[in-house]
From TrEMBL, chain A:
One of its GO terms (biological process) is sulfur compound metabolic process. Pfam families: Mo-co_dimer (PF03404), Oxidored_molyb (PF00174). Residues 288-406 form the Moybdenum cofactor oxidoreductase dimerisation domain. Its cofactor is Mo-molybdopterin. Its EC number is 1.8.2.1. This is Sulfite dehydrogenase. It comes from Paracoccus saliphilus.
Amino acid sequence: MSKSVPTSRRGILRAGLAAGALLPAASLSARAQGGPDPLITEVQDWASYTGEGVDETPYGLPIHFEADVIRRNVPWLTADPISSINFTPIHALDGTITPAGCAFERHHSGAIELAKPDYRLMINGLVDRPLVFTYADLERFPRHSGVYFCECAANSGMEWAGAQLNGSQYTHGMIHNMEYVGVSLKTLLDEAGIQPEGKWLYVEGADASSNGRSIPLEKALDDCMIAFKANGEALRKEHGYPVRLIVPGWEGNLWVKWLRRIEVTSGPVESREETSKYTDTLDNGISRKWTWVMDAKSVVTAPSPQSPIQHGKGPLVITGLAWSGRGVITRVDVSTDGGKNWQTARLAAPGQRMAMTRFWLEHDWNGEEMLLQSRAIDETGYVQPTKEALRDIRGENSVYHNNGIQTWWVREDGSAENVEVS
Amino acid sequence: TPVLADPLGLGRDALPEEIAAWDVDVMPDGTGLPEGSGDVMTGEEVFLEKCAACHGDFAEGLGNWPPLAGGEDTLDRKDPVKTVGSYWPHLSTVWDYVNRSMPFGQAQLLTPDETYAITAYILYSNYLVEEDFVLSRENFSEIAMPNAEGFIIDDRSDAEYPLFTVEACMQDCKESVEITMHASVIDVTPGEAADEEEASPASNEEEPAVDP
């Protein structure tokens, strides 16, 4: 065997990647005949030649085999890609931390480029001392950190009237979960001194859309923060570099990016983003406003339409994500029969407040069709409702806050489809 | 979490000019409006020049761009048409948003008078004022928006929370389960090269399903 190796290895090198890609197939066929696996018995290039040097990639991207683990856009959702949304590839991720490079984006006037030297944060309004901070000032405040999910209010919004998009990336991917470091909003506001009449904050970004929103002071002083680091590094441009607002558990629209101003006010501004948008119209034509909290929600990320079962019968890992804006996820149940029967899944780690929780359920798949569902329960006792239960109360025109239970129809061939069930 | 009793002395005082430059929001009662005025006919001229390419000559909206007029009495129907006239509760929001963030791609270039005039034209397009109407800071708060009473504060704690905090059924929760709806979109499949170009909803092209 050893004599033939150099020849075949040179042949592979000449043929390049295409020949290399054939190896697993050859290996499978050799295994099918009961023979030894050449990936083991033949010395592979990577076990003989060298890989890349440490100076090859000062800041790396994922290996090219993972090229499909990317943000995706659905062009028909919005009039143009500047005020639009893309989706996190949650179907391909595990654990809870979202890699920033594929974490979803939602802009109203594009992702702006704002350098740290050009950055200014103003606090004004009903304060003792209206202040201007530079970026360097902000880094001198005592630090604060936390892991939180940021879910767009419109996540799953396309599914109000029925099953529409085919994949958890599209139905549930307007979300990311990062570890943030920054300064608590309370610390910043203490610096300016809030006057007694100050009851609300109006926060706005430096971009053309401004994305101004009103936040009650109670929430601001409780757990809001400004962040300049996410998952260890500076915020990505598209996530608000150099400073964004973090509003744990509340709809993503409030997480103002490129934050430039915090105004203490006596009442809400009732800006465009809290009147025309991010208000939820009920069946009777009346609309809810200030629907800030994101309720408990979950989704099976695999198997799912973009992550079909490809290994046949036998052991199968059913996995997914759960989260709640009201606190800690305490339990996730999984059904394989459309909600007739449920089993409690295993949480990868104890739930964290207003952060994503990973669940796994080990299943012995006999090759039958499944109607896969997951159901999140949070520390307040709230049980994630079905879509029908939500529609019974709200109708189909809410646009936002769809946290209904998702169903994947897994067929005998392992493929899966987004469906609704009775 | 550090809780600071005393300021650290970081930052500097914001100057009045700086606050005036950035603090331009307008409250529902009109607080924050600058001096100025504009009439419907001037507004039509400005609108045709700066707004109509997306929003239509009559503010009716073109393509997927938002309509600003129309949709009266549609909020309790399937697919409501939400516009300034049919949906927005406060005129202040119109002035504030146009002034700060419109036209799309060329924001913050309008003069106060232009913004008053555009706002007057949008009111006219919604049949809320006559064609000789002049909008100014003085008469701003006299305008009543049709859907001003159409909003309630989040009532999930009463309307939903009690229903969704009952103990979850684990076994034999329903007699039968049928698939009632399939994803209607021919969707992207990872690995197919034509994904991005071909992903479009066969049945839904004339209107967006949602504005995220």
